[in-house]
Amino acid sequence: MRTFDELLRTRSKEAFFEQGLEALRGIGVVYQQGLGAASLALSGTPTESFRLAVRVASAGVLGTAGVEVSTDGGETYGAAVTVPVTGLLPATYFGVRLTFTNSLDVAQPSFVEGDTFSAALSATSFPTTSWQPGSVPRKLLEADAEANEERDVLDVAIASGGFLETADPGIADDSVAGPWLRLLAYAVYGVQWRVGVQARGQVVLVDAGAQGPFTFAPGELVVASSGGRRYVNSTGGTLTLSGTLTLDFTAEGVGAEYNVPVGSVTQLLTVRPGVTVSNPAVGSTGTWLTRQGTDPETQAELRQRCRNRWPTLGTGGAPAGFEFWATQASPEVTRVYVTASTTLAGAVNVYLAGPAGPVSPEAVADVQEYLEQVTAVAVVPVAMSAEGLSVTVAGTVRVEASRLTEAKAVAEANLARLFAVLPIGGDKRGGLPGILDREAVVAAIRPQDKSGASTTGIIDLDLSQPATDVSMDADQVALLVDSLTWTGV
User: Which is more confident, 486 or 310?
Assistant: First the structure.
């Protein structure tokens, strides 16, 4: 019997190929039945065709377990013998030797009384030693081995897909959630995978060259950030002579990387003479975004939301339960901080943030309505957006001229990601209060390999702001203000 640990490990096509060769040489595949996890390997050349059966007479491990051997398929058995510590039985059965191995899993018993091993052996075999590479019979066996390997991969996926911590082995925690985990989350936990949202914001067009008027239809204009993120207008209008026009623009793709800072959208890719673009903050919000872009949910994020499902089954109002409900209520919410109110008895403050910072009033309203429906009668939920804390990232970056565009785009994406996942209240691993780690900012701008060399061609980084770690209050969410100066050399 394959243990669960073994079910989570795929076997190579080379192993299946050798197994096929053994079968063609007359030594058949060993089949095992029972609760034990010991294994049996056969070796030698059969001198007669026969059906081997081995029955465990007494439980144990190598050196203590006893087995009985039959050469007529289990109709009659010989006297019980103790399996030596080496695993190799002293007797030879029509030219075949039997070697046993203990269970590889220490938690799984090796030999269990009543377990059986069986195999069919043949004195007539194929001349496999004469097969040349590329020959027809060898190619047929290789094709069969590849098919078995593919089946084994599926077996592993099925076995691991039934458990939260093992679903989709081989997919990294920070990668997009895999299909087996998505299925498990939906079928067992009632959690729908989040596919990601396109960012949307307001861009101001100016007829700086006095060439207007211009009339724009939705989908006609394409603008870009300094890092190359592209956006298409979702509303239209007329830009009057020497006038200004504010339009809604939607990101070309989903993801938090499109939540670029104020002032970074400066390129009009759809040429209109004399027209310039910018993305200033909307009113007093501190951001140009009207809807934050979110990334497709990762393995780690989806697993955590599934874990957060359990506290919702009780009535005590555990923080993880509020976090689950808040993220269920609005796709804009990716970060939640829960704390008891210090001013209202029985109230629970639920602070909300998305990847770009404070969430919209619509998101707060959606979460508040949802919480009122699911929380216990004695609990008063109060949903509110986290407070934005602007953090200026300033300094000079010198980079190889040929890699300037690449380095800026990577740094922009890394910074957006860093600020998008930083918890409300900052990183508290070093103790209270939480912080934005300055070294994390440096690493985002200048990613490096194991030797410490820049992977994007950055020669020098002189970061003037932040000068130290940034301290944050418990209800604050960090907002990126990108003031870096880039120089190609």
Answer: 486
